[in-house]
Amino acid sequence: MSDPFLSIENVAMYFGGLHALDDVSFEVERGAVLGLIGPNGSGKTTLMNCLSGVYKPTHGNVRFNGRRIADVPTYAVCRLGIARTFQVVKPFANLTVRENVAVGAMYGRHGGERNAAASFERAQELCEIVGLARIADRFASELTVPDRKRLEVAKALALDPEVLLLDEVMAGLNATEVEEALELLRAVNERGVTLIVVEHLMKAIVSISTSIVVLAEGKKIAQGAPAEVLASPRVIEAYLGTRYAARQQQREAPP
Question: Phi, psi at residue 159, to the nearest 5°?
Fold first, then answer.
């Protein structure tokens, strides 16, 4: 049997006495959209940092395309084909939108194959894909929050990833902007990019994810299809509390 596309194996991350992640394991299929959810402080961003090389796990392993990457530096993880966005977007404010994206195209997985002109052509293509072509010549400092989010996605796509890690790209958006962001992510996935999406908006997660992993206090407490996972009393309890979960069970109990 071939190795899984992306495999997280018993990953733990300790900061002194704090167990930010504790024995987390799951696999991600090529082409999937995995929703990664959990209460604040559950370890979601820590796990994203372990997958992208920002952190080296205290123990456990991450494998990508059959290769161990748990101790590979961030730039090398990127060049292997894993890119990410961040909760707090920080574009190069004094560069234009197109220039921001071109930087990624120059230094990403296929950057060595592109000269400056080809990098700017790729940047323009990505600006069109994410809906920023009309403002590609504006400075990043002039962008609205939704357009900064689009730029963050474009910069990550410029790295030519096979896997894109998205950390709350819909935070701070209104309902219309969330729908536009979801359309963008679906289009990215249809182009063959596997997505791992950290998000608190349950409606968004359910509408886009093929499967969901739930973290609570650094542990994986559920994994499966969205409807199945979100109906789990343990998941409900982790989000809404013990009393709420007990009331739900009472309502669902036969008379």
Answer: -80, 0
Task: Confirm if 209 and 197 have CB atoms less than 8 A apart.
Answer: yes
Residues 105 and 122: their CA atoms lie apart, in Å, by: 7
203-209-213 Cα angle (round to 5) = 95
Shortest CA distance to 83 belongs to which of 145, 141, 126? 126
User: Residue 252 contacts by C-beta under 8 Å, 6 or more apart in sequence?
Assistant: none
Please give the model's pTM, rounded to 2 decimal places: 0.89
Distance CA 29, CA 210 (A): 10
Q: pLDDT tens for residues 11-29?
A: 999 998 889 999 999 999 9
Q: 50, 57 in Cβ contact below 8 A?
A: yes
End-to-end alpha-carbon separation of the chain, Å? Answer: 49
Length of the chain: 255
Q: How many CB atoms lie within 10 A of CB 66?
A: 10
The SS3 call for residue 231 is coil
Would you put residue 92 in left (φ > 0), alpha (ψ -120 to 50) or beta?
Answer: beta
Mean pLDDT within 132-155: 94
The pLDDT, as a whole number, for residue 113 is: 83
